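note to self: the first set is below, dont mix up w the second
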Amino acid sequence: MKIGIIAASGKAGTMIMKEAISRGHEVTAIVRNAAKITDSQVTVLERDILEISYADVKEFDILVDAFNAPHGQEELHQTTLAHLTKILAGHKTPRLIVVGGAGSLYVDPAKTIRVMDTPDFPDAFLPTASNMGTAFDALKANNEITWTYLSPSAMFLPDGERTGSYTVGLDNLLANAAGASEISYADYAIALLDEAEAGKHINQRFTVGSK
């Protein structure tokens, strides 16, 4: 497939890019600074996320949004996703796959309490979680594009092991046999590419965790 990855030079984006390349996909890295992409197997498009147009992405089968807002500008999670949904509106392709957050996952079967609503949720992470949650709510209400939203587990581990396996859930936080809610960036990237190829969660959020 032809896959465009926004913020391909970031931690999650880099791992997703490497996984896509290893599977033989045609990858375009969409980054603000082209110099940060040194892999010769990748086409580079230097573009700020808010300046991306449909013409930039229309040839892709999959568009991965791996953007992570900087500290103090967490509202960009809302404005950037709104921009992407606007330019994709009315088009069947590319399918948008969003690297989401865990804060909007539920911790109870009735789906009334989100991770970010729990008493011990760190205050430092609340601006990111709440803005990502609001952006996700807007995405769920959008019926003009084809999308998938992939939430990691509570602990998203940049240097975690690549085990090659993971468990899948939908809207509730996962925990492994040891009681830990975690997923490595490497295993998350595997799950995202599996979804890109299989398309099992169209217009749906799902989550992945370690076994």
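second set (the one i keep forgetting abt)
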Amino acid sequence: MAIRVGLIGLGSMGRHHARVIRATEGFELVAVADEFGDKFGVAGDLEVLPNVEALIEAGLDAAMVAVPTIYHEPVALKLAEAGVHTMVEKPIAHSAEAGRRVAAAFAEAGLVGAVGYVERCNPALREMRRRIAAGELGELYQITTRRQGPFPARIADVGVVKDLATHDVDLTAWLAGSRYESISAQTTFRSGREHEDMVVATGRLESGVIVNHTVNWLSPLKERITVAIGERGAFVADTALGDLTFYANGTIRTEWDQVAQFRGVTEGDVIRYAIPKREPLLVEQEGFRDAINGDPSNVVTMAEAVHTLDVIDAMVASNGEMVRF
């Protein structure tokens, strides 16, 4: 029997969720809601309901929350009270304290509460994590991320830290299998908005892995790069393309001095892996479905999302000072 799913929020992310929920085996999209209507025309033959209360009245097993971040907490709390398994788009809420309230409500109700960090479902990062866990890098030393590009007009209620850097914090802890121990960040405001539009952050995980994140909305160069360096070499994931490349530590000495000046004194193998590439949002919804059916291994838990928000809130407030968790 199909799981009856409701979707609230039909904006830039909600429109994609509507399509993917319909494409997910075992899911049936039975209700949609958005107080501002259906500007992308994704409701199909479903009535566009005005709010979460009307959505709940449709009789749901599960719900996807894709409203603006400031509304995540009140909408999610009503779904928890109604006994509806829920995935909330990242971040879980507008603050760590709000996130803790949401996580507690779903835990106390014995419901699946998940958070939509879709980057975890990127094929390059999933393969990187598998290979790191298998020991292919040996000891992991460092993870760095670069996530930058032009300003997205869809964003109105948060800065670049909560919109984009939150992905990097989540995926870094997930790749390394370790929480953050400390973080320090510098932010700046260059576009005339009330929220920050650039951030550079440096930190350390509890495992000892050091991390660095460069994130902004003001670069004409669009990058989505994650680099993991270990004792045997480096993995480089280009998540815009879903590509994963391995750069092995050099074993062959470069005897041509002119080349060595540009490429280093030793060279190792470089491998770009051929990996299956499925749409990350579909993989994410399948993980949510599986969690409802008893296998929670492929979702971002609300507890994990709260830790990410602790780090994100610290980045916004840091002003260059080191914050420890």
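remember for set 2: The chain is about 30% helix and 30% strand.
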